[in-house]
C-alpha cells in the first residue's frame, strides 16, 4: 500500500467519522476516559510516591550510616571504626506521654540535631529548633491536642514541663505526634545504649570498608557491638517503581486496552453495510481492511491525545488536596513521561488491534452478506468460557509462582513481572468467562417482568459485545479493589503489631490525689460495667515482685514488679473476670500480652534499701492473655488475704481503671477528660492508636472508580442503543412507550454493572494476595470497595441510566444505520 492509497483510506475514514458524528464522539469519549484516567492516576501516583532519596532522608537525614548500639557499643568504640573526618550525631526516638487537662496521649519523643547530619528528617514550620534543656518543638497534631502555641508549655510524662519554641513537621508523616527535644537528651541516652548514631562519612569513602553488620535493632540489642543501616541499602529498598504501583499500573493499561477494543468493535460493526458498498464499488480486501484501520487510527489518535490532556489537567486540579489526602508533603505535579507515552501509544494501538479482527472479517465477508447487514458468526460463548478458565488458571499459577520467587529473593525483578502477568491474565480470564455468564441470563428471564425480561435476553444475545464492556468494568473496578485491599491489609498489619496500653473498652485515670474521686464519678457518668482502684503493694521498707517457677515459655516476663491487690470487681475492670474464683482461692492472676503456659509463680518480698530478699511464697497462677502492653495497668493481681500473708499491705492508689460495655468513643473520652480536669493533676488514657493517613485518598479513589465505571457503562449502553435499531422498531411496532424502553435500558445497564462488579472482587484480590504473601501479611477484604463494586455501582448505573437515557424517537429509529 503506497502513500496515495493511504491518503485515500484516511480520507474515507475521516468522512465516515464525520457522517456519524455522535457515534464517533461516543467512541472517542470511551477511549478518552481510560487514557485520561491512566495518565491522571500515573501523574498523581508519581507525585505522591516518595523518591528513594526522600525516603532515605526521612529515616536518616544526610547520614551514610544509621548505627545501633549493641553489646559493648560505645561512641568511643564507634569512632575507632570510622575514618578520620567522620561526623557523628546521636539520635533518640522513644515513646512518651503528653499530659493535657484530663487526658494523656501517646506521642514520640525525639532528640537529635535537626540542622546537623539529621538535616531533612524534620521541617521547621515556624519558630526555632530547641537549643537548651527544657525547650521543645512540637508537630501540629501535638499543638492541636495541647492547645498550645510558641511560648507556651506542655507537660510530658517522663520529661516533665517543657517550653514550646517551634512548630515542626515530619514531611512524610503529617499526622505524626512528635515532640523534638534539644540534642543533649540524645547525648545523655548514648550512655545507656538507648540512642543510635547518625554517621556522615568523608566524601568518596566506601561505606562497605567499615564492615559493620547491616541489620536493624532487635529486642535486647544485637549481639555484636554495632549494627547499621546503610544509605545505599535504604536506597535499594525504596528505589525504582514499587511492586504495588507496577501491578496497579498494569491493570490500568489493561483496562484502557479493553475499553478501546470494546468501543471500536461496536463502531466497526455499525460500518459493515458501508464496507459492503466499498467492496461492490471495486475495493480490494486489503483496501476494505485499510479503511477500517484508518478510521481506528484517527479515532484512537485524537482520543488518546485528548485523554492525556484531560488526565494532566485533572491531576493538576487535584494536586492542592494531595497533602491532606495522603498525610505527607507532596511536590508539585510530576509527570510520568514513560506512562504518558505508553498511554498515548496504547490508545492508538488498542484501537488498531481492536479493529484488526473486524477489519479482517469485513474484508473476507461476501459482498451480499455485507450489504444485507447480517453479522458474521461470532465465537461460541462455551469456547470463550473454556479459554477464559484456562487463562484464569494460568494467571493464578503465575501469581503463586511470582509470590514464591519473591519470598525466596525479594530483589528479584522477574517476580514483579510474574505478579503483573498474573494480575493481567487473571483479569482477562475472568473477562473471558463473562460472555458465557451473560448467556446464562436467558434462562431466568422468562419469570421476570417485561422490561427486565427483554433487558436480560437482549444482554444475553449481545454477549460478545457486552462481555468486552464487562471486562473493562471489572479491570477498572478491580484496580480499586486491589488498592483498597492492599491498604486495608497494611493497616491491619500495623494494628496487629500495635500493642495498646489498654483494652478497647477501658479508660485509665492516673495522676494525683483526685483519682480516687474522679474514677468512681467517671464510672457512674458513663455507666461503666466495672471499675476499681489499682493500689501498689508494699511499704517504704519492702516491695513485691514475682517470677515464674520452672517455666521457659518465651511469652512470660522474667520478672513482674507491677503487682496490685484486687477483687472480682477489679478483675472485671481489667478484663480478667474469668480468674475471679482462682483469685479468691489464693492464686496469682498474671496478665500477659500473649498466651502463656504456667502453673505456679513465686512471690518475692524484698528490702527497698538493698534489694535483698526478705521472704518468698510459691502460689498457683491463672494466666489471662489480654494482648496489651501493660504500660499503665498492673501485670499481676493478688488477693488481700495473700498480701496479708506476705506482710505487705496495699498502699494508697492514684490509678483507676473503668470498663465500659462497648469500645470507647470520642464522646466517652471527652466526657471522662472533662471529669478528670476538675481534679488536680488527674488525666485519662484510652487505647485509640494514632490516625493512619490515606483513608481520604482511598475514598476519593472509590468515588473516581465509580464515576469512571458509570461513564463506561453509560457510553456502552448508548452505543448499544444506537446499534439496536431493529429492536427499537419492533418495540415501537408493538406499542412500547418511552417509559418501558427506559426501564429496559436501565435494567441492561444494571446487569452489566453488577456482573462487572462481582468479577472485579476476585480480579482485584488476586494480585494483592501475591504481594502480601511476600510480606507475610494477611489479606484483608476491603468492605467499602467491595460494597461499592457489587451494590453501589449497579444501583447508580440503573438510576443514572433511567434519569439521563433518552430512547430513540420514532422518526429516528426508522432511519438508516449510517445516520
Structural account:
With 819 residues, the chain is of the alpha+beta class. It is elongated and about 115 Å long. It is built from 28 helices and 20 strands. Helix content is 54%, strand content 15%. A hairpin with a 3-residue loop joins β6 and β7 (160-169). α8 (243-270) packs parallel to α12 (337-364), α8 runs parallel beside α24 (695-723) and α15 (413-439) packs antiparallel against α26 (738-775). The strands form three sheets. The protein has a six-stranded mixed β-barrel. A six-stranded mixed sheet has the order 13-16-17-15-18-14. Strands 12-19-11-20 form a four-stranded antiparallel sheet. Residues 216-222 and 239-243 have low confidence and may be disordered.
List descriptors.
28 helices, 20 strands, elongated, six-stranded mixed β-sheet, alpha+beta, single chain, 819 residues, six-stranded mixed barrel, 54% helix, 15% strand
Amino acid at each position: 500500500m503506497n502513500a496515495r492509497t493511504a491518503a485515500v483510506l484516511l480520507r474515507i475514514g475521516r468522512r465516515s467519522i464525520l457522517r456519524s458524528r455522535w457515534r464517533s464522539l461516543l467512541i472517542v469519549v470511551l477511549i478518552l476516559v481510560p487514557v485520561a484516567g491512566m495518565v491522571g492516576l500515573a501523574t498523581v501516583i508519581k507525585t505522591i510516591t516518595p523518591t528513594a532519596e526522600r525516603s532515605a532522608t526521612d529515616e536518616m537525614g544526610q547520614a551514610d550510616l544509621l548505627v545501633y548500639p549493641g553489646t559493648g557499643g560505645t561512641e568511643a568504640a564507634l569512632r575507632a571504626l570510622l575514618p578520620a573526618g567522620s561526623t557523628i550525631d546521636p539520635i533518640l526516638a522513644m515513646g512518651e506521654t503528653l499530659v493535657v487537662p484530663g487526658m494523656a496521649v501517646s506521642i514520640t519523643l525525639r532528640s537529635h540535631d535537626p540542622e546537623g547530619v539529621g538535616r531533612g528528617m524534620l521541617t521547621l514550620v515556624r519558630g526555632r529548633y530547641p537549643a537548651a534543656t527544657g525547650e521543645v518543638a512540637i508537630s501540629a497534631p501535638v499543638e492541636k491536642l495541647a492547645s498550645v502555641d510558641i511560648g507556651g508549655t506542655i507537660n510530658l510524662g517522663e520529661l516533665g514541663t517543657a517550653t514550646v519554641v517551634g512548630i515542626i513537621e515530619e514531611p512524610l508523616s503529617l499526622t505524626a505526634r512528635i515532640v523534638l527535644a534539644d540534642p543533649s537528651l540524645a547525648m545523655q541516652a548514648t550512655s545507656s545504649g538507648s540512642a543510635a548514631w547518625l554517621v556522615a562519612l568523608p566524601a568518596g569513602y566506601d561505606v562497605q570498608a567499615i564492615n559493620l553488620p547491616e541489620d536493624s535493632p532487635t529486642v535486647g540489642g544485637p549481639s555484636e557491638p554495632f549494627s547499621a543501616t546503610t544509605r545505599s541499602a535504604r536506597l535499594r529498598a525504596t528505589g525504582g517503581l514499587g511492586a504495588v504501583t507496577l501491578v496497579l499500573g498494569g491493570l490500568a493499561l489493561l483496562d484502557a486496552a479493553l475499553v478501546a477494543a470494546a468501543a471500536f468493535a461496536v463502531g466497526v460493526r455499525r460500518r459493515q453495510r458501508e464496507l459492503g458498498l466499498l467492496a461492490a464499488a471495486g475495493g480490494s480486501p486489503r483496501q476494505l481492511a485499510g479503511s477500517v484501520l484508518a478510521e481506528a487510527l484517527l479515532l484512537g489518535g485524537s482520543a488518546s491525545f485528548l485523554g492525556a490532556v484531560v488526565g494532566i489537567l485533572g491531576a493538576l486540579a487535584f494536586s492542592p488536596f494531595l497533602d491532606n489526602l495522603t498525610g505527607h508533603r507532596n511536590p508539585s505535579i510530576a509527570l510520568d513521561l514513560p506512562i504518558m507515552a505508553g498511554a498515548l501509544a496504547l490508545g492508538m494501538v488498542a484501537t488498531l488491534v481492536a479493529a484488526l479482527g473486524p477489519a479482517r472479517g469485513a474484508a473476507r465477508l461476501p459482498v451480499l452478506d455485507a450489504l444485507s447487514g447480517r453479522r458474521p458468526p461470532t465465537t461460541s460463548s462455551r469456547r470463550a468460557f473454556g479459554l477464559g478458565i484456562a487463562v484464569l488458571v494460568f494467571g493464578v499459577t503465575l501469581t503463586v509462582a511470582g509470590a514464591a520467587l519473591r519470598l525466596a529473593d525479594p530483589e528479584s525483578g522477574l517476580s514483579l513481572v510474574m505478579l503483573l502477568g498474573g494480575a493481567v491474565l487473571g483479569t482477562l480470564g475472568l473477562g473471558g468467562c463473562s460472555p458465557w455468564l451473560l448467556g446464562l441470563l436467558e434462562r431466568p428471564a422468562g419469570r421476570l417482568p417485561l422490561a427486565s425480561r427483554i433487558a436480560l435476553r437482549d444482554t444475553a444475545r449481545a454477549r460478545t459485545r457486552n462481555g468486552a464492556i464487562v471486562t473493562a468494568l471489572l479491570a477498572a473496578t478491580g484496580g480499586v479493589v486491589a488498592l483498597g485491599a492492599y491498604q486495608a491489609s497494611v493497616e491491619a498489619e500495623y494494628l496487629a503489631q500495635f500493642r495498646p496500653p489498654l483494652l478497647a473498652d477501658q479508660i485509665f485515670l492516673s495522676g494525683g490525689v483526685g483519682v480516687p474521686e474522679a474514677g468512681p464519678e467517671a464510672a457512674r457518668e458513663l455507666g461503666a460495667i466495672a471499675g476499681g482502684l489499682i493500689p501498689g503493694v508494699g511499704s517504704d521498707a519492702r516491695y513485691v515482685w514475682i517470677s515464674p517457677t520452672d517455666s521457659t515459655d518465651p511469652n512470660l516476663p522474667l520478672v513482674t514488679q507491677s503487682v496490685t491487690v484486687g477483687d472480682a470487681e477489679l478483675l472485671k475492670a481489667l478484663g480478667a473476670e474469668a480468674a475471679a474464683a482462682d483469685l479468691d482461692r489464693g492464686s496469682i492472676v498474671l496478665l500477659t500480652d500473649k498466651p502463656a503456659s504456667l502453673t505456679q509463680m513465686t512471690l518475692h518480698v524484698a528490702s527497698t534499701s538493698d534489694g535483698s530478699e526478705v521472704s518468698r511464697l510459691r502460689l498457683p497462677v491463672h494466666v489471662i492473655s489480654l494482648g496489651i502492653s501493660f504500660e499503665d495497668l498492673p501485670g499481676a493481681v493478688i488477693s488481700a488475704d495473700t498480701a496479708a500473708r506476705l506482710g505487705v499491705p496495699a498502699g494508697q492508689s492514684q490509678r483507676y481503671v473503668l470498663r465500659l460495655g462497648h469500645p470507647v468513643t470520642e464522646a466517652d473520652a471527652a466526657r471522662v477528660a472533662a471529669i478528670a480536669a476538675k481534679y488536680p493533676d488527674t488525666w485519662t488514657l484510652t487505647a485509640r492508636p494514632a490516625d493512619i493517613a490515606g483513608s481520604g485518598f482511598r475514598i476519593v479513589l472509590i468515588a473516581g472508580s465509580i464515576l469512571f465505571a458509570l461513564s463506561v457503562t453509560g457510553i456502552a449502553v448508548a452505543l448499544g442503543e444506537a446499534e439496536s435499531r431493529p429492536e427499537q422498531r419492533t418495540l415501537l411496532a408493538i406499542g412500547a412507550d418511552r417509559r418501558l424502553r427506559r426501564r429496559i435500558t436501565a435494567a441492561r445497564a444494571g446487569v452489566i454493572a453488577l456482573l462487572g462488579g462481582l468479577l472485579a472482587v476476585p480480579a482485584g484480590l488476586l494480585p494483592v494476595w501475591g504481594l502480601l504473601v511476600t510480606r507475610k501479611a494477611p489479606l484483608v477484604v476491603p468492605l467499602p470497595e467491595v460494597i461499592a463494586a457489587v451494590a453501589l455501582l449497579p444501583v447508580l448505573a440503573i438510576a443514572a441510566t433511567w434519569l439521563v437515557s433518552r430512547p430513540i424517537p420514532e422518526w429516528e429509529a426508522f432511519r438508516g444505520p449510517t445516520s
